[in-house]
Each structure stands twice: as C-alpha cells, then as structure tokens.
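Person: Please comment on this record:
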Amino acid sequence: MFSRRGSMALAVLLLGGTLAACGAGEPKASAGLSGNALDMCVAKATELKKSKLAEPPLKVLAPFDMAKNKGKSIWIINAARVPLLQRVSDGAQAAATAAGLSVKVVYGDGSTNTAQAAMQQAIAQGANGIALVAVDPTTIQDSVNQAAKAGIVVTDVGNRSVGDPLRPGVAGQLGYDVPAEMAAMAGWIMADSKCSADTLMYSPSALSITSAGAKAFQAQYQALCPSCAFELKDLDYGNFASTLTAEVQTDLRRNPNLDYIFAIIGSSVPEVDAGLRGNDHVRVLTHDGLDDNLEALRKGTTHVVANFAFAPNEAIGWQVIDQQGRLLLGEKDALDLTIPTRMVDATDIGATNDDIWPSFTGAQKTYTAAWK
C-alpha cells in the first residue's frame, strides 16, 4: 500500500518477533485454544510468520534486447505527489535514461479527474507506454480503453494481487503477493499472542487492493484461531488524518481487551500512535515500509511492532521500466510480476534501511545487464 492518497496499499500489509515499542507487555496465555489445537495453531502461525521474514531475492527475467525500444516514450502517471511514489518515479526516470527511452512523470492529486487528464495527454502526445502507479485503471476505464485501442502499452502498478486477471485495456500488472503477505501478518499476531488475540483492523474499502488484503487477512486469522476476537473497520481514506486518532480512542474505550491493531495503510500510523498515547499494551502492525515508520520501529518510539516493507523504491521504478520494455516488444513472461516485499520487526530491522535489502544494492546493474 503506497501512502495516504497514493497508497500501493497495499500495501498494502508486518512483523515482529520480540516485545518492542512502547512497553508492550508479555502476551497472555491462550483463552480460546488448548491442548493439541493450541500447539497446531502456534506451530502453523510461526511457520507463516517466518515465511516472509527473509529478504526475497532480486529477480530479473531473462535478457532481452531493450535497445529495440530506443527513443520510445513512457509516461509514469502517479496517484499523488508523495515521497514513496516520487522515489519510484526517480528510479523509473533513471532506468528510462539508461535504456534510451524518454519518460514523462505526472503526479495527480488523488482524484480520478487528474489521472484521467494525464491519460488523455499521454494519448494525445503519442506515448508508447503508460504506467499507472497507484492509479486503479478501472477508475479511468474509458481512457485506458482509448490507450489500448491506440496501441499503447498500459501497465497497472500496485493495485492488484499477483494472479488477479488483467483489467480491460491493461497489458501487464506489477502487484503484490497479497495472500502470502496477509497470511504472514496473521501468523505474526498468532505466534506473538500464543493464539489468544483480540485484533482490530482498519482498512479502507475504497481501495480494491486493501479490500482484498482485509479479506485475505481475516480468512487466515480466523482459520488459525476461530475463537480469537476480530473486528474489521472501514478506514475513511480521504479524512483519516483528522478522524482516526479520536476513533482509536473510542475503540479502546469500547474494547479494553484489545491486543492488536492492524493499520494496513502505513501513513495512518501517526494517527494510530496518537490514539494509543499512554497505552502500553496494544501492538500495531502496518504495511508500506515507510521510512518514518521503519525508523520509529528501529528506535522503539512507536506502537508498531511489525511492518511489511517494499523493496527499495527506486528499484521498483527500474522494475516498472523493465516490464514496460518487455511488453513493448510483446514478451508474454512480463504480464504479471511481483513487487518484492518482506516483513520486518525488531529481530531484523537492522541499523539502517539498507540493511533490510542488502541484495538490492546495485539493482541497476542487474537490470542493465539483462538489457543486453
């Protein structure tokens, strides 16, 4: 999930292994499971948690002749001007320059109107490819259809789960492994609580990727521990900066037994932390791997104990251009690619964010080497 209005949501998505921030207490013994059922739950939860703790490898498809695309025009249309999307676009610009492509980066204001206008500009100016970054193509479907009819390669970046069908007019997608990410999140909570959790999830129904994430998380959570309390609340995506802190305070008064909050939108963490001020029990999990959230987790100045982090954002930009280049040449193996993510908690946060993604250092050289 990208951030406030530009969330790749998916973002959407959180880890931990030790007691971390804000003086969280020892997890209580299970009140809902016992005996063999408890042992099986904890074992499965631990397995799921560990499944996303390790850094995934940098995967680049087989070499191809990117030089055949020299001089072609790629537009990067972002949902909003937020730091994460800016870094992705910076990476895309650097990659396009290295590939001999021209690139135009546009930032919207989070509305469909600005995305629609950018699409029309790109079509009118004869773009060869358009990457929609955190802009759901179904919200500007007419323009996407026009672009496809004009032979423009449209890619859907950060709005889908891997394996989802391509939307009409879309040539390829770059998405998240939502089921695996959400299973790891549920596993983290159950392993940490010994399958005795009371969890509240804030997730915006307005975003398709977070809706899919919420559904996947709830299914895995309840499969692990059917008797564990769970509540899903709709996050007011456009207004949470002014409403969420008070909402958290109200929810705490309503449910003093609450153990965990899963705030799937990473940029909502400051509001959640503010709502939990003075509380030393509730632990927070989130998604997006935003720099401020990772640094707060590292320093122990937040209630966040686990966070799903994206690969270095500039490297995602290189991935966007690599996919565009392959699809411009008709390569079918680039239709459905995965944005690398991993869970981080106090056990693997490292001293800096570079420590989270050591194998992605020099990603640019890996891509250019694959471009012959």
